[in-house]
Design brief:
The chain is about 45% helix and about 15% strand. It has about 325 residues and is of the alpha/beta class. The chain has three domains: about 45 residues, 434 Repressor (Amino-terminal Domain) (Orthogonal Bundle), CATH 1.10.260.40; about 120 residues, 3-Layer(aba) Sandwich (Rossmann fold); about 130 residues, Response regulator (Rossmann fold, 3-Layer(aba) Sandwich). The strands form two sheets. It has a six-stranded parallel beta sheet with strand order 2-1-3-4-5-11, with helices on both faces. The protein has a six-stranded mixed beta sheet with strand order 7-6-8-9-10-12, sandwiched between helices. Strand 3, helix 7 and strand 4 form a beta-alpha-beta unit. The protein is elongated. It starts with a helix and ends in a 6-residue tail after the last strand.
Length: about 325
């Protein structure tokens, strides 16, 4: 591999001129620039990205920390982030932590050492608070609330309203025994969706019925069996996300319980799988792509000085699992 000095010799310029062309740190005469670029092409020289990032304090990279790449919500979110980053000349580095706090700490440390231009984080783990408060890298949180002292921005959908419209839809469709399969208490979005459901139940004089479940297909299978034992008269179910809704449907189908004739089902997120399954899933949509795009633009445009919050509105997508 050619060195920067060899490129300079081939282009008949100084090594510092080659460096200025590569890093764009100063204006270079067009003729010299043309010769340098030609020499780089002919020699196969590859600039040292690490050295360049240290020099410019920027690696043209956005870091993304997700709790699970098996959850299509985060997969689709990451895809939108990468696409937008690429449009602005940036790359994306994704860290899958499986919800493990030590992995999250390591991911933050690794990304900051890489001089990433910003981090998009989707965790609300309180054990990260001190690390994030001392992190000089700009941070934007999506779908998980973290301290105003640790993030320059918080982007989320109105999860409380999402829980409300899911419950209202089932009540309007005649459901009398609605069970909310709520996410874990540690997840801010899960708490907000459940509160929306709970307030509608209170307003309508309907008994609150709920069961906690992690945001995973496997956990959904197990918790659905428990749900049917605990609430045998259930006629409406609100799932904590679409993957759990799909697992609920699978168990109901195995038991010969008809959807939506016997039990109506509402998911949450509107991932691509929601309209690919049969019957197609009624769900509360989050604007996943718009949220990802907003996060990237905030970081690239350096809009993280001072805390900013952006709230998107949820939308009920009525399909075939409700009447």
């Amino acid at each position: 591999m050619a060195s920067i000095r060899e490129v300079a010799k081939l282009a008949n310029v100084s090594p510092s001129t080659v460096s200025r062309v590569i890093n764009g740190t100063a204006n270079v005469d067009e003729e010299k620039k043309r010769r340098v670029l030609k020499a780089i092409d002919e020699s196969g020289f590859t600039p040292n990205e690490v050295a360049r990032s240290l020099f410019k304090k920027s690696s043209k990279t956005i870091g993304v920390i997700v709790p699970s790449i098996t959850n299509p919500f985060f997969t689709e979110m990451s895809s939108a982030i990468e696409k937008t980053a690429n449009e602005y000349g940036y790359r994306m580095t994704i860290c899958n932590t499986s919800g493990n706090v030590e992995k999250e700490k390591n991911a933050i440390s690794m990304l900051t050492s890489m001089n990433v231009d910003g981090i998009v984080i989707t965790t609300s783990n309180q054990e990260l608070k001190k690390i994030l408060e001392n992190c000089e890298t700009p941070i934007v949180a999506i779908d998980r609330v973290i301290s105003k002292n640790t993030a320059g921005g918080y982007i989320h959908c109105d999860n409380y309203e999402g829980g409300r419209i899911a419950a209202q839809h089932l009540i309007q469709n005649g459901c009398k025994s609605i069970v909310c399969v709520r996410g874990l208490e540690s997840i801010s979005s899960a708490r907000e969706r459940y509160q929306g459901y709970l307030d509608v139940c209170t307003e309508q004089g309907i008994r609150e019925q709920s069961i906690r479940c992690d945001y995973s297909f496997t956990e959904g299978l197990t918790m659905t069996e428990k749900l049917l034992e605990e609430f045998p008269d259930v006629d409406g179910i609100i799932a904590c996300n679409d993957m759990v809704a799909i697992s609920i449907y699978k168990v109901l189908c195995r038991r010969g319980i008809r959807v939506p004739e016997d039990i109506q089902l509402v998911g949450y997120d509107n991932i691509s799988l929601a309209h690919l399954m049969t019957p197609e899933l009624t769900t509360v949509a989050q604007p996943i792509e718009k949220m990802g795009v907003k996060a990237v633009k905030m970081l690239i445009r350096k809009e993280t000085k001072g805390y900013k919050e952006y709230i998107f509105s949820p939308e009920l997508i009525i399909r075939e699992t409700t009447k």
